[in-house]
Amino acid sequence: MGLSTHVLDTMHGAPAAGMGVALYTTHGDEATLVKRFTLNADGRSDGPLYDNNTIQVGTYRLVFDVAAYFKTRDVVLPEPNFLGRVSLDFGVAHTDQHYHVPLLVSPWAYSTYRGS
């Protein structure tokens, strides 16, 4: 399946439908935008971000627009927001495996792990 992501809004106990996300490839401090997308009603991208035939060994970054998402949910946030965007840098070592990058997020905290 390649690479996928899923975001759960822990403040509301629901998928983070409508959250904007950007995917980058990284090389040291340089990042190259691959695509921007919006999470669907299940808090997921529509299909894999890469499949096993196109993903390459290397480093990647997912950037989740957390503050904008919570503002669309009418959550009153201070200025500046505690979390604006959450960036997750991760490596892919095995292109024959599935890399799932879930994010659990609220306006004040986040957690991630390599999912299945």
Care to describe what's here?
The protein is mainly β and 116 residues long. It contains 1 helix and 8 strands. It has one helix at 66-72, and strands at residues 3-9, 14-15, 20-27, 30-38, 58-64, 86-92, 99-105, 110-112. Strands 2-1-7-8 form a 4-stranded mixed beta sheet, with no helix packed on it. The mean pLDDT is 96.
Descriptive terms for the model:
about 120 residues, 4-stranded antiparallel beta sheet, Immunoglobulin-like, mainly beta, 4-stranded mixed beta sheet, 1 helix, about 45% strand
Layout of secondary structure:
Layout: E1 3-9, E2 14-15, E3 20-27, E4 30-38, E5 58-64, H1 66-72, E6 86-92, E7 99-105, E8 110-112
Count of individual domains:
1
Task: Give the CA-based shape.
Answer: globular
CATH topology (level 3) name: Immunoglobulin-like
The CATH architecture can be given as Sandwich
- The SSE order reads EEEEEHEEE
DSSP strand content: 35-45%
Distance N terminus to C terminus? Answer: 10 Å
Would you state the CATH class?
Mainly Beta
Helix content: under 10%
Task: Please state the CA-atom Rg, rounded to the nearest Å.
Answer: 14 Å
* Largest sheet: spatial strand order: 2-1-7-8
* CATH homologous superfamily classification: Transthyretin/hydroxyisourate hydrolase domain
